[in-house]
Amino acid sequence: MVLGWRRRGKNKKNRHEGGKVEEVVTPIHFRCPISLELMKDPVTLCTGITYDRESIERWFDEGSFTCPVTNQIVTSFDLIPNHTLRMMIQDWCVENQQHGVERIPTPRVPITPVELQELLLVLHAEASRLDQHACLELVQRIQRWGAESERNMRCMAENGAPPALASAFDAFANDSVERNATVLHGILSALNSMFPHRKHLGSRASLRCMVWFLRRQDLSGKENSIVALEQLLSFGDHQHVEALAEIEGINQLLLEFLDQTIFSPTITKASLALVWYLVSSSSPCSEKMRLKFIELGMVSLVLDILVDSERSLCEKALAVFDSLCGCQQGREKVYSNALAIPLLVKKLLRVSSLGSDYSVSAIWKLCKFGEEMVLIEALQLGAFQKLLLVLQIGCGDQTKEKATELLKLFNPYRTGVVECIDSDFKNLKRSI
Fold this sequence. Notes:
By secondary structure, the protein is mainly alpha-helical. Helices cover 59% and strands 3% of the residues. It has helices at 53-61, 83-95, 113-128, 132-148, 150-158, 161-175, 181-194, 204-216, 219-233, 238-245, 250-256, 265-280, 285-295, 298-307, 311-324, 328-335, 340-347, 353-369, 372-380, 383-393, 397-410, and strands spanning 4-6, 23-25, 42-44, 50-52, 80-81.
């Protein structure tokens, strides 16, 4: 097998008279035995065979314990950089630049767990002393390490960086959010960008700090905080839900973030997700939060979002709407809004399978506990045919049970009812 580099000149002088593109053959000892591509970061295994770092690390990550070339059992996973070979490859690249070969950059040496642990110990000490400047420098170094390679990211995630950063965040938040706002913002940004799936920021001081950011920071700071809160509550810890619910003004704050004309889609989606976690949790505070959101006008806001929003946002809005329909006060607000039933029927099979589940559930609650006019309206809007399609396409057991019950509720009213096709409701005015 011969690998080559095609010349990439801008004129036709790079071609032979026969019109064939010239190729530069890559020396076989410059190619990784695994990928057969030019090595960018050659490292030598304990068996004496050199591989490209990315390829051999992937080989080990997939569960192999042997040297790919010799098939020997590897006694040490240490990868020794082959600087001599790397410099030879770089020299060869320079010599063939006129043929379009690009020089490989000198790779940075990956961090080791020992180096990371030493830095995290220093970070803990500086955070204990509340040294903002020193901590910020350490956080920035961690971010630079993460930017260098995916391997560094894995090393930090597996060796305690997320909880160490969260601990530093908690220390500064406990002291004073206003005084330590800069370092707190830096730590939160690092956690968001490098370790998105985390559950370490659950202390009450950390939660109060992130809500403070929602009120006081610019859009970037608000986005960092709302995303961190969404990730935290997604783990389903009732203590986090209750601690956030206790913070004064959180309901009104989240409602304000649903204004898509002011805030980014990221903020709006995360806010809807937070509302859903707060109103649908099995925590004792959820019912109180649901009533508070209903009182503040959440039903109308969610319906406005459903009128003209992209699918992922509609899915979250339907989840919140379904939860609000779970209490009498929420259903009363829904019955008084002319958009409610038409939008729910319209969104069936138009958002996602999960979105259809929420729509069926909300329609079921409204029809089961409402007056017969609700049933007739849904029937006129084509709900019967759509529910049949939902059952035909396939759905979960709970949705199947609710759709079947709805069909039974609709059946006595089908005679004499003219069923219509759903339409666009953007210009339909709400009656409140």
